[in-house]
Amino acid sequence: MKNKRKVEVIDYQSDWKKKFEDEAEILREILKDIIVDIHHIGSTAIPNIKAKPIIDILIEVKEIDKVDQFNDKLIQQGYIPLGENGIPNRRFFIKGDEINRTHHVHIFQTGNPEIARHIRFRDYLINHPDEAKAYSDLKDELAKKYPYNIEEYIKGKDHFIKEIDQKATKER
């Protein structure tokens, strides 16, 4: 099992926000003029819930096709470029390696509906602590059930995420 990444969720860490801010500064320095905005997304952006200790960063850019020209600079900062990685019109990077990741960076061009979806999801759970707790409990249960099967862990969250997406969309 040494080559498999363990699915592990941990209690909320108060330094996750600072880790996001520090990394966002590095990314701003690299991507400079193509950046429109940078957002802390995912469970590490939602206070008091359990999360995999990987900081998710969403970067909105003017032109997605210009991102690839920065791959070498991002590699120098420890990032691994993975292209679209299953989501059209996205650029995805991991920091660390396949087993020990510290950051995920999702880059989308302005206007991509994934930007608003991620932000709505985050904001909805911040504003609905009972549902955030239910999500936290679900993730904890799935991580214990599938400690070395990230696909099943993700599949197990899918229904809940879709429900929250619908509620968050109605609330806006």
TrEMBL record:
Q: Matching InterPro entries, A to Z?
A: GrpB/CoaE (IPR007344), NT_sf (IPR043519)
**Native source species:** Thermoanaerobacter siderophilus SR4
Organism lineage reads as:
Bacteria, Bacillati, Bacillota, Clostridia, Thermoanaerobacterales
Protein name (database record) = Glutamate-rich protein GrpB
